[in-house]
């Protein structure tokens, strides 16, 4: 884990909001084409609509979160779905607990 990369990813309010929404996607999004959001994830178009930003900006935010290891992708057909990487988030929480 690169803590600097993780903290950079978490330094943006919209990226933090995305992570919060992905924690309980069924509370924040309508399922995309009947996909199980807990198992598969949330489509970029769903996040784009919720943030009211351009798809390119949201895609960039998701890419930053993915590079930091905070989210995972799942490609189904022409769609890419995003979900939290709970193992990595726990690792970060443990790191903070031990360090601070």
Automatic annotation (TrEMBL):
Keyword Transcription regulation tagged: yes
Keyword terms of this UniProt record: DNA-binding, Transcription, Transcription regulation
| Species of provenance | Brevibacillus aydinogluensis
Q: Name one GO molecular function term.
A: DNA-binding transcription factor activity
UniProt-listed PANTHER family: TRANSCRIPTIONAL REGULATOR, ARSR FAMILY, TRANSCRIPTIONAL REPRESSOR SDPR
Decide whether keyword Kinase is in the record.
no
List membrane-spanning regions: none
Q: Where is the HTH arsR-type domain?
A: 1-100
Which Pfam family, giving just one, matches this sequence? HTH_5
Q: Spell out the protein name for this chain.
A: DNA-binding transcriptional regulator, ArsR family
């Amino acid at each position: 884990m690169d803590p600097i990369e993780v903290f950079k990813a978490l330094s943006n309010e919209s990226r933090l909001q995305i992570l919060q929404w992905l924690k309980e996607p069924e509370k924040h999004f309508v399922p995309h084409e009947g996909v199980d959001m807990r198992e598969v994830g949330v489509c970029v178009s769903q996040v784009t609509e919720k943030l009211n930003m351009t798809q390119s900006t949201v895609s960039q935010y998701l890419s930053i979160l993915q590079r930091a290891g905070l989210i995972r992708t799942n490609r189904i057909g022409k769609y890419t779905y995003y979900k939290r990487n709970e193992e990595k988030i726990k690792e970060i929480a443990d790191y903070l607990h031990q360090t601070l």
